[in-house]
């Protein structure tokens, strides 16, 4: 499974990515949750871990990293797209930028599934269209409730899509034990395990 984490900018995709990774790692027998950071914004898998330890150091390193890049250059897009196509691990999370751009389409064209995370649910239809165009099976639609006080877990609907909300996705926060993140992690592991058989 090559699962694209997509949705509008500032929805908390990188925070969710790190929370899912940590939650999945705690599930006995779960496949390792490999992460491909597909946005040149300086928030690779290292960023959240560094932010947890030292927010100031994380900000400094991110700015240095961003300054060394040239955005969505053809070389960056090709390198990341090649990583997606060549990854053969059973559970891969692909964290993309917040615009359904041509570059993101090139990166995601060989992915298999998608999780849509949005703070503004009115933006979800454009991401459904993005996924449909690429043949990505949407497996979760999550509301990023930044000002909320607790998660909600609606579970898997008749359409096979997991739904819920995650509150306060903020850099430096450990969200790996939030109810919606834990439930989504368990859902992904069940799916990945079924796909392997």
Low-confidence parts: none
Termini gap: 12 Å
Q: Which CATH class?
A: Alpha Beta
Q: What is the tally of helical segments?
A: 7
- Helical content (DSSP H or I, runs of 4+): 40-55%
Task: Identify the CATH homologous superfamily.
Answer: P-loop containing nucleotide triphosphate hydrolases
What is the third-level CATH name, the topology? Rossmann fold
Order of the strands making up the biggest sheet: 2-3-1-4-5-7-6
Q: State the total count of DSSP E strands.
A: 7
Could you explain the architecture of this structure?
The relative contact order is 0.23. The protein has seven helices and seven strands. The chain has a seven-stranded mixed β-sheet, with helices on both faces. The two termini are 12 Å apart. The longest helix has 18 residues, at 179-196. It has a single domain (2-196), classed as Rossmann fold (3-Layer(aba) Sandwich), CATH 3.40.50. The protein is an alpha/beta fold and 197 residues long. The radius of gyration is 16 Å and the shape is globular. Helix 1 (13-25) packs across helix 7, helix 2 runs antiparallel to helix 3 (55-67) and helix 4 packs parallel to helix 5. The mean pLDDT is 90. Strand 6 (152-156) and strand 7 form a beta hairpin. 43% of the residues lie in helices and 21% in strands.
């Amino acid at each position: 499974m090559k699962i694209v984490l997509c949705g509008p900018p500032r929805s908390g995709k990188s925070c969710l990515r790190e929370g899912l990774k940590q939650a999945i790692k705690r599930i006995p027998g779960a496949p390792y949750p490999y992460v491909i950071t597909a946005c040149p914004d300086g928030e690779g898998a290292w960023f959240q871990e560094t932010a947890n330890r030292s927010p100031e150091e994380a900000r400094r390193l991110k700015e240095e990293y961003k300054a060394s890049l040239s955005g969505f250059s053809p070389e960056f897009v090709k390198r990341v797209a090649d990583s997606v196509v060549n990854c053969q691990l059973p559970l891969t999370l692909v964290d993309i930028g917040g615009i359904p751009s041509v570059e993101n389409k090139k990166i995601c064209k060989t992915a298999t599934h998608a999780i849509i995370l949005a703070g503004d649910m009115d933006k979800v239809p454009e991401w459904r269209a993005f996924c449909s165009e690429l043949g990505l099976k949407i497996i979760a639609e999550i509301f990023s409730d930044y000002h909320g006080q607790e998660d909600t877990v609606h579970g898997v609907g008749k359409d096979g899509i997991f739904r819920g909300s995650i509150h306060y996705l903020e850099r430096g926060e450990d969200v790996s034990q939030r109810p919606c993140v834990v439930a989504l992690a368990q859902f992904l592991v069940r799916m990945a395990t079924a796909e392997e058989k």
